[in-house]
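subagent[fold] <- orchestrator: predict structure for attached chain, return tokens only, no commentary.
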Amino acid sequence: MNLKNYWISKLIIILGVFFLNSANADNKINASQQVSNFLNTIKEFASEKDSLIKIKRSDQLLDMVDLEFMSKVTVGKQWKTVDDSEKIIFKRKLFNKFIQFIDLHLEDFKEIKFQEKSIKLRGQKLVYVTGSIDTKKIKKLDITWKLSSKENKILDVEIEKISLIKTQKLEMRPLLKKNKNNFSQFIEIYFSN
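subagent[fold] -> orchestrator:
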């Protein structure tokens, strides 16, 4: 190998590492910003009195969450057999359950603060944003936001190392088994609470 080819190959490796690190840094920054946007939108939603603006904030929250992924993971293998119209109903009801949770804790969410501790890439597809949340009632609650690096959407939230998706899945499992051949009935029963 001549000297020119040797240096060119080294330069290509260095540039490749530089661009890879640059893309990874962008993913981390985007994920951090998405968590901030999400929490700010929750604050705005919680503080809003006008129902039309509240709907707009709700739509903004929906755009930041990968509801398809959450639904697929919580329902499991059965999701493949669910009809498209039932999928739409399920996702809408799952998101509404989240909005109802915010409504129950409006005063607390008006003053939510997030202190970021770290941002880590988990392979090529995931970014974890870790930190703690303070509200009126709760102080230093450990939380990890799991986001897709490609779409920059929230996939899951772990609070005190308890995954929202895993909790939903465990909660749904017995009812899913009982209503294995009737997803519409499962939706009706699960979301009636």
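orchestrator: received. Logging for downstream: The chain is about 60% helix and 20% strand. The first strand starts at residue 113 and ends at 122.
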